[in-house]
């Protein structure tokens, strides 16, 4: 049960009566008894909450930043009208509105309630309970009861970098020869012979074929297809740090991973995905080309950075165990010299002997801004600290490159396109 | 903040109130202020005289039944007439300090005579207690009686009753002067015990209001019931507000930690320790890392090669360049700021040329 503000108001107004009647003691007693009787009457005649039945419908996933509309149908099989308020209790970051709605369901009828979800965070958001408070005819007291009507909406990563996809796909088509261009590199595959046009590389003339025909003929090449790309997301402590003022590293890495996956799928490569810190957090393998992106966002959605140091030997073992054939291993982590020095460096030879490794890390625009700070001594000391961390970053980058590892280090906004460009460059060079 | 202010205000207010009440109780054997008589009571106790501080007639009567004692009525006794009569009927010696409302009841054989200035006076009589004591600070009221009359009439005896024009000489303030202490001890130390009567404490709640009625009596009968009803109303409102519409939903939130925090922390450490050597080294290292690729020198160029190439490229003085890039660390913070500015200038020049 629950009381209402009206009951409090009645009790407060009765104080005035008590002040002015001759027998105040009796007035208090009478007031309390009357109020109690009215409350009991209200409770007896209020619509019953327990037999209400609920049905939900709506989407089960929504992209972060977009709005989902979830419907709740309330059916009242009881003999009395249920008039009151209903609250659908979602987690706070589900961004539910309205928080509670007034309902009025006559007996035997049903009403449709519409809630809007505007999640503020990635992950699974669920409804804990639906609570109904049904007022009595006097409006002094209400019956209240909860129902469990489970519904979960998975909030997917927003994939903001998809705006970069068309330009990268155009570059990819150039590579593949769909556009009139002649591309040649190590490990590329022979495609076809065609007539020489002015501007073609003379080195690509096929003299044997030219001799057979009266025309100069050139060979065309196309990039390798059906290569393997393994995107590895480090979900350890270094991914929890927020760069700039917004997202953690992990979310920027996910964004870049999605762009890379979309691009690689179009390029005809097989994309696998692994999220790892001290255990496998997510694993997608062998998804079909059309379903890869949805599979990726689905497994990425609930992944959060854990506050543990990543287990680099375990990560290497997981990669080697899953990628049997040579693959491009894209490791999305932080280029933190201390963490990489102790973690990745010792296991690097194992990985780079079998696979082509690309390490990508988001750099922090705040550090870049601090490095440019001048004017007061405080700002210069901060700038010196920032320079030092940048120098460490450059050193670890140089060491990684020395081991034949590709490195992408970019500011958050440029990170996804930079990674896509690095992939395209590798593809163009036929190094996959 | 507000709570602290409130506490301080309460303490100060309380101390002021207590200070206001602490003006000293006149001729009180437990009062150590200038108006009290604790010193005299202490002297009496040292001489083996029992001093009982009494603030009601009943206690005085019960003490008197235990044996021979002396009753001292010091500060004006503000009881009613019947109490004064009961006091007068107590057996034993009396020492009464002048301005009592019921002096005629307490000492019927003593008549009020007049006034005399309060000062140090000679005994001027044959009373042994006064003669032994010598000069004493007396005066105030003067009396007529059939016994001895000393100190210009401000100390008279009539049988077992001694009346004093003023009790000022027995206070802590005056006791050490002249023969005051001797006179007081002679007067009060004649018996084994002294019943020292003080006015009963006056409580604030017992102050008679208008018509002798308290605020509770003035209030209409309805008010307490209305307060009870208000309590009920508050309880109803509490029940209304206390009932939540459904459960509280908990959510596991991710940690919010800024990645730049470690860098900021290092900056503050540099700042706190004035680590100009390390700071200058970091700034120079960063500048060199950006400059050397633009100069077209090898991977690990020597310092003089870099300085020479920079001087040729920018036209800046080689000595200055050498000091800025490879010199000693700056001597103070201003030097460090200047160094950072100069390094920026070199980089800008190299970019533009």
UniProtKB/TrEMBL annotation, chain A:
Database matches in Pfam families: DUF58
Domain DUF58: residue ranges: 193-370
InterPro entries: DUF58 (IPR002881)
Protein name according to UniProt: Uncharacterized protein (DUF58 family)
């Amino acid at each position: 049960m629950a009381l209402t503000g009206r009951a409090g108001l009645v009790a407060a107004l009765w104080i005035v009566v008590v002040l002015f009647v001759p027998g105040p003691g009796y007035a208090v007693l009478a007031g309390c008894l009357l109020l109690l009787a009215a409350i009991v009457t209200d409770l007896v005649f209020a619509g019953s909450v327990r037999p209400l039945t609920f049905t939900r419908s709506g989407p089960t996933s929504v992209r972060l930043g977009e709005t989902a509309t979830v419907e709740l149908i309330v059916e009242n099989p009881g003999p009395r009208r249920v008039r009151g308020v209903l609250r659908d209790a979602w987690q706070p970051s589900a961004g539910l509105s309205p928080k509670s709605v007034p309902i009025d369901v006559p007996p035997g009828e049903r009403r449709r309630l519409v809630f809007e979800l505007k999640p503020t965070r990635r992950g699974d958001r669920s409804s804990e309970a639906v609570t109904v408070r049904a007022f009595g005819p006097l409006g002094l007291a209400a019956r209240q009861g909860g129902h469990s009507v489970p519904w979960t909406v998975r909030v997917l990563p927003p994939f903001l970098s998809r705006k970069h996809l068309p330009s990268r796909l155009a570059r990819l088509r150039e590579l593949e020869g769909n556009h009139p261009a002649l591309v040649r590199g190590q490990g590329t595959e022979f495609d076809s012979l065609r007539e020489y046009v002015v501007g073609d590389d003379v080195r690509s003339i096929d003299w044997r074929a030219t001799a057979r025909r009266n025309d100069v003929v050139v060979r065309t090449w196309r990039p390798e297809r059906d290569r393997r790309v393994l995107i590895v997301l480090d979900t350890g402590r270094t991914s929890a740090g927020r760069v700039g003022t917004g997202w953690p590293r992990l979310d920027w890495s996910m964004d870049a991973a999605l762009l890379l996956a979309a691009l690689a799928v179009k390029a005809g490569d097989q994309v696998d995905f692994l999220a790892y810190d001290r255990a496998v957090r997510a694993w997608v393998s062998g998804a079909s080309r059309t379903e890869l992106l949805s599979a990726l966002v689905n497994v990425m959605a609930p992944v959060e950075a854990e506050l543990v140091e990543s287990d680099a030997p375990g990560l290497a073992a997981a990669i080697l165990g899953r990628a049997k054939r040579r693959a491009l291993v894209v490791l999305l982590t932080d280029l933190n010299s201390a963490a990489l020095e102790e973690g990745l460096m010792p296991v690097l030879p194992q990985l780079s002997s079998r696979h082509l490794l690309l390490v990508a890390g988001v750099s922090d625009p705040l550090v870049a801004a601090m490095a440019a700070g001048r004017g007061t001594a405080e700002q210069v000391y901060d700038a010196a600290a920032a320079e030092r961390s940048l120098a460490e970053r450059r050193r670890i980058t140089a060491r990684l490159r020395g081991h034949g590892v590709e490195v992408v280090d970019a500011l958050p906004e440029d990170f996804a396109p930079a990674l896509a460009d690095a992939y395209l460059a590798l593809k163009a060079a036929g190094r996959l | 903040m507000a709570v602290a202010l409130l506490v301080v205000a309460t303490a100060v207010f309380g101390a002021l109130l207590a200070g206001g009440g602490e003006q000293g109780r006149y001729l009180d054997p437990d009062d150590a202020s200038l108006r009290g008589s604790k010193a005299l009571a202490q002297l009496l106790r040292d001489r083996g005289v029992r001093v009982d501080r009494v603030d009601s007639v009943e206690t005085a009567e019960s003490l008197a039944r235990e044996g021979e004692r002396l009753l001292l009525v010091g500060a004006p006794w503000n009881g009613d007439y019947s109490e004064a009569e009961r006091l007068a009927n107590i057996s034993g010696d009396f020492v009464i300090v002048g301005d009592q409302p019921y002096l005629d009841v307490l000492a019927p054989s003593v008549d009020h005579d007049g006034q005399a200035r309060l000062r140090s006076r000679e005994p001027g009589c044959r009373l042994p207690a006064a003669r032994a004591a010598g000069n004493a600070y007396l005066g105030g009221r003067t009396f007529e009686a059939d016994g001895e009359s000393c100190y210009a009439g401000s100390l008279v005896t009539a049988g077992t009753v001694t009346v004093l024009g003023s009790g000022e000489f027995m206070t802590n303030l005056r006791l050490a002067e002249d023969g005051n202490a001797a006179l007081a001890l002679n007067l009060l130390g004649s018996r084994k015990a002294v019943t020292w009567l003080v006015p009963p404490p006056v409580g604030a709640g017992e102050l008679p209001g208008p018509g002798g009625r308290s605020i509770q009596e003035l209030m209409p009968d309805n008010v307490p019931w209305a307060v009870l009803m208000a309590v009920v109303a508050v309880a109803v409102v509490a029940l209304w507000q206390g009932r939540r519409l459904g459960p509280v939903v908990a959510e596991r939130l991710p940690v919010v930690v800024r990645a730049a925090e470690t860098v900021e922390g290092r900056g503050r450490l540099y700042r706190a320790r004035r680590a100009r050597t390390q700071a200058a080294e970091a700034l120079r290292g960063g500048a060199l890392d950006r400059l050397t690729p633009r100069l077209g020198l090898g991977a690990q160029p020597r310092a003089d090669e870099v300085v020479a190439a920079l001087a040729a490229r920018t036209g800046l003085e080689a000595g200055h360049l050498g000091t800025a890039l490879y010199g000693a660390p700056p001597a103070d913070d201003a030097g460090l700021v200047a160094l950072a500015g100069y390094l920026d200038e070199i980089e800008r020049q190299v970019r533009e040329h």
